[in-house]
Write a structure and sequence with these properties.
Distance between the termini: 46 Å
CATH architecture of the largest domain: 3-Layer(aba) Sandwich
Structural class: alpha/beta
Strand content: 5-15%
Bound molecules: zinc ion
Number of helices: 10
Largest sheet: 4 strands, parallel
């Protein structure tokens, strides 16, 4: 009966889409079909194992990932490109103080996970430094992790902590960036030992952040690490991005 009422209310236009705020919502906080259409969702089949993006060469990784050293994780999945409406969605959640946008994102991520058949035991979110936490009052990746855990039925373990705040990466040269990231994560929960981990981050740019986090998990006995990110930065704007 409840389901019938929700559908009826949605049909009457009672709910608003959380992204465009027009009357196209479905009462489950999912984004409306028009907004969804504007997202550049990435294909699950034929994806790059380094960043989750489209393969644009004859090799197993995309041309961008070829420029980076071998990743410590074995697979990556990205929900969409970090551009257009997808970029707005993530930036609103992160910097626009709109944590409610984490739900539609988590639902999209769960959809991609099901489609990929990716297997894992636990979800580990990439942490933020407490100083960033104070600025924002929530950790968007942790929030996504909690929602994704309820969508997938797999537990979330906050196994990592950020030991120092890394400056926004666009302000640093590649060598400096790597130096800053080195040892910037520490394990704080040993229950990940022997587990297959799904490492969750919001935006993947160079893959340096998730690589550093994955190394720390593997060093401490994780069985394997796979990466799930909400969006990956497309090649053209990668150089000027603020994310890791
Ligand atoms: Zn919409
Ligand atoms: Zn790639």
């Amino acid at each position: 009966m409840k389901e019938f009422l929700r559908r009826f209310a949605a049909w009457c236009g009672f709910f608003r889409c959380p992204l465009c705020e027009e009357k196209g919502g479905n009462g489950r906080n999912e984004i409306c079909p028009e907004c969804r259409e504007q997202l550049e969702l990435l294909p699950v089949k034929g994806r790059c194992r380094g960043c989750g993006g489209r393969i644009d060469s004859a090799l197993a990784v995309c041309s961008n990932c070829m420029a980076y050293p071998e990743r410590p994780y074995c697979d990556a999945l990205a929900v969409m490109e970090y551009s257009g409406a997808g970029r707005t969605l993530i930036r609103q959640m992160k910097f626009g103080n709109r944590p409610e946008l984490a739900r539609p994102l988590a639902m999209l991520a769960a959809e991609k996970l099901r489609e990929s058949g990716m297997e894992f035991d636990v979800i580990v979110p990439v942490p933020i430094h407490w100083r960033r936490f104070l600025e924002r009052s929530y950790n968007q990746t942790e929030l996504l992790g909690t929602l994704l855990a309820s969508e997938t039925g797999k537990p979330m373990i906050k196994a990592l902590k950020k030991t120092r705040a890394t400056p926004h990466q666009s302000r640093l040269k590649k060598s400096k960036r790597q130096k800053f990231l080195k040892n910037s994560f520490a394990l704080c929960d040993r229950s990940i030992e022997g587990k297959n981990i799904l490492l969750l981050d919001d935006v993947l740019t160079t893959g340096a952040t998730v690589s550093t986090a994955a190394k720390e998990l593997l060093k401490n006995g994780a069985n394997s690490v796979k990466v799930l990110c909400c969006a990956r930065t497309p090649l053209k704007i990668r150089m000027s991005s603020r994310n890791g």
